[in-house]
Amino acid sequence: VEDIAAALGTVAHVHDLRRLALGPFKLSQGAHDMAALQYVADAGDWERLDALLLPLDAALHHYPAVTLSEAVAFQMTQGKVVSVPDTLTNGQTVRLYGPDERFLGMGEMLGDGRCAPKRLMQGVPGQKPRNLLSNGFQG
Predict the structure, then answer these.
(1) Each residue of 56-72: pLDDT tens digit?
(2) Parts of the chain belonging to CATH 2.30.130.10
(3) C-alpha distances in angstroms, 9 versus 3, 16, 30, 135?
(4) Does residue 7 sit in helix, strand or coil?
(5) With contact defined as beta carbons under 8 Å apart, do 13 and 20 qualify?
(6) Are 116 and 84 a contacting pair, CB within 8 Å?
(7) DSSP summary character for residue 106
(8) Is residue 94 within 8 Å of residue 66, measured between CB atoms?
(9) Stretch (H or E) spanning 37
């Protein structure tokens, strides 16, 4: 706002700032409408609120996906550089999935079909994810 005002030779300030979108997420997005989410939260309907949770990788779909075999996924979670069948660009960031289509984290292509772990989710491929109850205790 200040830069627009300066270009017009005057001053300005923001009275109210409202974010309507952030990346792929819009303020009004069906069941994920912010007002609806607040209503469900205020009502204490934790099961319904849990059902509205988006997958961990919902904001990362602009990165290419690489699916790893169980053995390669395990090596990746151990911090090892692995060979992948995809021929992506050197230095490109990718989403990593296990054979069960579970999101493992992010990797970086190194060239020659190799991929290094960049940011990984905690856990081991094939291991059932822990369920946390609404009160934060493990179920």
Answers:
(1) 888 898 999 999 999 99
(2) 65-120
(3) 10, 22, 42, 54
(4) helix
(5) no
(6) no
(7) E
(8) yes
(9) helix 34-42
What amino acid is encoded at 92 in this protein?
Q
Distance of alpha carbon 17 from alpha carbon 19, whole angstroms: 7
| Those residues with Cβ within 8 angstroms of residue 89's Cβ, 6 or more apart along the chain or in another chain | 109
Q: pLDDT tens digits for the chain (139 residues)?
A: 788 889 999 998 888 877 777 777 776 666 567 777 788 888 888 888 888 778 888 889 899 999 999 999 999 988 999 998 767 788 899 999 999 999 999 999 997 889 999 999 876 444 444 444 444 444 4
Which amino acid, one-letter code, is at 70? E
pTM: 0.64
With residue 116 as reference, give the H or E element that holds it. Answer: strand 114-120
Contacts of 36 (CB under 8 A, 6+ apart): none
Topology of domain 65-120 in CATH is 2.30.130
Separation CA 24–CA 69 (nearest Å): 29
